[in-house]
Design goal:
Helices cover 44% and strands 20% of the residues. By secondary structure, it is α/β, with parallel strands linked by helices. A six-stranded mixed beta sheet has the order 2-1-3-4-5-6.
């Protein structure tokens, strides 16, 4: 199933029908404060805190943003080696062709995210130790 949330509430679409999935790809999912989830592991949002929470919950965050305007999200995803998880809504046509590859490589991507958290946590701990020593 495909879920998305907007000001009208939470919506669900059956994705076992390929025609529904292609319709879903054309949805405007960049609603301010909105979130779209596919299955149990792909979380689509334009909000940084939703994307970060998705990472911590062992899901794959897909940033659906105007990359030219969202420097913070682009910077964080680039630093983490996750730039391929950005869907730039300013590019025509809207490129959803990367989603099957992301889904197929979900285990590897989740490992990369976990390694990124470990790496930055270690750096933060080292920095704090040097400050307070």
């Amino acid at each position: 199933s495909l879920y998305w949330e907007d000001s009208a509430g939470l919506h669900r679409m059956n994705t076992s029908d390929a025609s529904n999935l292609s319709k879903a790809a054309t949805l405007n999912i960049s609603v301010e404060g909105g979130m779209l989830a596919y299955g149990d592991y792909l979380i689509f949002s334009n909000r940084l805190h939703v994307l970060m929470f998705a990472m911590r919950c062992d899901s794959i965050p897909i940033a659906v943003i105007d990359a030219a305007k969202e420097e913070k999200i682009v910077g964080i995803f680039s630093d983490a080696g996750l730039k391929r998880l950005i869907l730039d809504i300013d590019k025509e046509p809207f490129n959803v062709s990367i989603l099957p590859e992301i889904a197929a490589n979900s285990h590897q991507i989740k490992e990369e995210i976990a390694a990124c958290f470990d790496r930055y946590q270690d750096k933060a701990e080292t920095l704090l130790e040097s400050i307070f020593s």
